[in-house]
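Appendix C. Worked example: o-succinylbenzoate synthase
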Amino acid sequence: MQLALYRYSLPFRQPLMFKGNRLSNRQGLLVCINGQWGEIAPLPGFSTETLAEAQAESLACLATMQRGEKARPKLPSVQFGFDCAQRQWPANLPAPLPPYPLLQGAPRELMLGLDNIVTGWVALPPSRLKLKVARYAMEEELALINQLAIRLPTTKLILDANGGWTREEAQRFCARLPLKQIDYLEEPCAALADTIAVAAATGIPIALDETLSRQEEWHYHPQLKALVIKPTLIGSLSACEALVKRARADNLRVVVSSSFESDLGLGLVARLASEWASDEPPGLDTGHWLAERVTTAAGEVMTENLHCLSKMESSA
Ligand SMILES: O=C(O)CCC(=O)C1=CC=C[C@@H](O)[C@@H]1C(=O)O
Ligand SMILES: [Mg+2]
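Step 2, the predicted output written as C-alpha cells:
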C-alpha cells in the first residue's frame, strides 16, 4: 500500500474574507492512497477544525493504515479527503453542468462594473447567478440586486446571507426584493427558527447550507427549496449521500457546492455534483479566485510544488 500526504498553499488573486477571517492564501492537504487522491482543506470561519488539527489527524490515520488497520477519521475535512482517496468512483459519469457564476465584492464596485459583467453575458445570460448579501449597507445591496434583475431578466438570483441578519433585518430586506427573480436565499439568519419565520412571513424560498454542515436537526417546510451540500464541510460521503436521499424524498433541489478547494478538490466535488445532482448547476465558481494550481492541465498532481509531510509504503 502506498500512502502520502502533502501540504499546499495557493495565493488568492486578492485577499478574501471568510466570516471575519481575511485570507491571502488557501492552504490545505492532499492525501494519496495507492495513487488515488483526496483533498483535506478546512475553511477558516466555516470549518470547526483547524488545518493543524486536520494535519495531525491525517498523519495518525495514515499510520493506522500502515499497520494494516482501517482509519476512521472524525474531522469532516479529513473524512472527505480519505473517503475520496478510497472511493470506488462510478465510471461514465455525465459531464457536470457548468457552475453558476459567483459575484463577490462591494456592491458599489460591482455596480460600477455592471456594464462589463452584463455585456459579457449578452449572448447567453446564466440561468442562475449568486451574490453574497448581509455584508454591506442594505440599500446598496438592494440597489445592486434590483439592477441585476432588470439587466438580466432571464437569470434567477441566488442570495447568500451566511446567517448575517436578525429576523427583523431579513424581513425588511426580503420585503424589497424582486421576489419573482429570486431563486432562493441561503441562511438569512443564524438560528434556523428565525430563517423559517422569515420564509413564512415573506414567502421567500430558502436553502440550507451552514445548518447542514453544523449537522443541526431540520424539518421540511414548504418554503424550503434546496439543500446546499458542501462535502468538505459535511465530511463523510455517506453523510452527504444521506442528505441527497432526504432531499429527493422531500422534493428539494440539491446544489453541490465548493468550500474554495484547490483545482484538485474542485474536480472531486464536480464529480460528486454530476453523480448526485446532474440536473442542477453546481456552486463551483470559486477556482478563478486562486492564482495557482496543484494539477497540470492533464490532471497530474504537481507534487514537486507541494510540501511532502509523509510518504510511506507498507505491505499491509
Ligand atoms: O456555493 C457557491 O456557489 C460557491 C461557494 C460559496 O459561495 C461559499 C463557499 C464557502 C463559504 C462561503 O464563502 C460561501 C457559502 O457560504 O456558500
Ligand atoms: Mg452558503
